[in-house]
Amino acid sequence: MRRIWSRLLVAGIWLAIALISSAGAVARGEPAPFGAIVFDACIDWGTCAVWTPLVLWLVARYPVVRRPVRHVPLQLVAIVALVVAKFALQRAVLAVVASAPVPALGDLMARRFVAELVLFAAVFAIVHAVVLHDRVRREELQGLALRAELADSRLDALVRKIEPHFLFNTLQAISTLLQRDARAADAMITGLSDLLRDLLRSDAPHEVPLATELESARRYLDIMAIRFGDRLTIAIDAAGETAGALVPRLVLQPLLENALRHGVAASTGPALLAVVARRTGGELELVVTDDGRGDAVASAGTGVGLANTRERLHRLYGDAARLDTARPARGGFRARVQLPFRTQP
User: Fold this and answer.
1) Are 124 and 55 in contact (CB under 8 A)?
2) For residues 206 and 150, is the Cβ–Cβ distance under 8 A?
3) Are strands 232-238 and 271-280 parallel, antiparallel or unpaired?
4) Is the pLDDT of residue 33 over 70?
5) Could you tell me the pLDDT band of residue 299, with boundaries at 50, 70 and 90?
6) What phi, psi does 52 have (nearest 5°)?
7) Which of 129, 199, 300, 342 lies 20 to 30 Å (CA to CA) from residue 250?
8) If one looks up domain 162-340 in CATH, what number appears?
9) Rounded CA gap, 206 and 193, in Å?
10) pLDDT tens, position by position, 178-225
């Protein structure tokens, strides 16, 4: 149905142009009857309308903005070819419907060839403008969809990234602490409450200053510090200039979970979890490192949390951001995020 309406709109535009052209001819004092003027105008402009679908296809298939060096010459050749085809079709139609002798193709082209070139060039330009407007509109819609998706990621972070087993283990640890250390259990409950409240905020933007992200990460790590006790050492080193840098909200959460689950929890002895934020030229670098034993999934860097983080970075920054993982020579596991260094205006 949309295609039918589009074709009717194109036909209506060309018909309106034909009528306006006829009115202009009458205003100039053309001696022919008005009906004959309208008839000739409809044939003239109608043979232009016939080629409009091909113009639309050429612009969609070979847009100038994508490869101008290659597509501009191609479309210039197409304009010339379409003008010749237009005159050939016009002469064929006149040969069928006109009572007077029809001028030769060369005579028809000699009269209005340059004007028709300008006309078809204008049509190409208008179609390009429409295509570019549609492209901008689609990007805006994609931006809205991305914001909606990032809003949903708050729930995803609660259900998938924090995962049911984390909530179960935390509640189990709280239950155990209640029997021997009520103060620690109360602190763990408070930390869990603050973390869940932060994750479920409905007004949170999709990017936040690094200082805000680190505050959320500290809430999570405070809970884990109570859970793992003295054997977990946490070190956070964030350069002062990075505090205002914008980062995807909750970007550290899956990296911390990956380190704690596959590194710290898999080890039996003391473990160090380090978070480093620094600026390197025009990039912000976030590094999460643990010295735990690790496992095959963590070593490969192919876990669900890391895969989701890579996808978010790609959607937000394209090729300007990346997440890479490695096993340091001294052991453990390292996840590093690099993204453009930007601050709030």
Assistant:
1) yes
2) yes
3) parallel
4) no
5) very low
6) -60, -45
7) 300
8) 3.30.565.10
9) 22
10) 877 788 888 888 888 877 776 666 566 778 899 999 998 888 888 888
Q: How far is CA 300 from CA 258, 268, 303, 327, in A?
A: 12, 22, 8, 9
pLDDT in tens, 68-101: 777 778 878 887 887 788 778 777 777 777 666 6
- Both tokens of residue 139? 């990007």
- For 151, the token pair is 């809003």
What does the DSSP 8-state code read for residue 208? E
Closest to 132 (Cα-Cα) out of 64, 211, 227, 55: 64
Q: Alpha-carbon distance 237 to 99, whole Å?
A: 90
Helix ranges (H only) for the chain are 2-27, 34-49, 52-61, 68-97, 105-156, 164-180, 182-199, 210-228, 253-259, 296-300, 304-317
Task: Tell me how far the alpha carbon of residue 10 is from its chain's centroid.
Answer: 31
Residue 168 binned pLDDT confidence (cut-offs 50, 70, 90): confident
Give the predicted TM-score (pTM) of the model: 0.52
CA–CA gap between residue 156 and residue 304 (Å, rounded): 12
Give the whole-angstrom CA distance, residue 21 versus residue 11.
15
φ, ψ (nearest 5 deg) of residue 321: -130, 155
Phi, psi at 278, each rounded to 5°: -150, 160
- The residue extents of the domains of the chain are 2-141, 162-340
Give the residue from 238, 241, 239, 245 showing the smallest Cα distance to 209.
245
Return the amino acid letter for 139.
Answer: E
* End-to-end CA, the chain: 45
Q: Which two tokens stand for residue 35?
A: 């009906």
